[in-house]
Amino acid sequence: MVTYPEAELPARLAAQVADLEAQAWPGAGAGHDPALAPEVVLLLDEEGTVLASLALLRKTIRHGGRTYRAAGLSAVVTRESARGRGHGGRLVAAARAALAADPAVDLVLFSCDRPLVPFYEAAGFTRLPGTVLVGGTPEQPLATDAPGFAKEVLADFPGADTGADAFAGARIALYPGLVDRLW
């Protein structure tokens, strides 16, 4: 496993990540908003082929009258030919452990499609029933409960002195911008 700031990702690896993301999400743009300090975490085989990839994004949020240093997972993808072997689960669990060890992270929040909840729970994340992330911008919001979405919110609270109770069933103004509308 290797981690790079997205801007420093070697071209050979960046091309593989872009291909994997294009296969998983045709038509989606590549790369993340630099304002979110994107880091790319990769699981490589012995030859340097990307088996699985994800991005870690960070920003400060306000919730319940408090400020939190939030991180999130984005663009989690496993090479089609390598699926079903636990690579994605290992990568997500390693990302969770890295964020839990980061003293600059109070909490981890992200959304996923409902069928993927057990996958993320197996990596140690907690589902927040009824929680809605509001992404985009205040002027152009995109919420996880928007019509046609089947999203759930998951979290981890490594550095927060508050836990899931403060976030369960809440609308959380994430507002990561228009590039990473929801992470």
TrEMBL record:
Domain N-acetyltransferase span(s) in chain numbering: 2-147
Gene Ontology MF terms in the entry: acyltransferase activity, transferring groups other than amino-acyl groups
Record InterPro entries: Acyl_CoA_acyltransferase, GNAT_dom
Protein name: N-acetyltransferase domain-containing protein
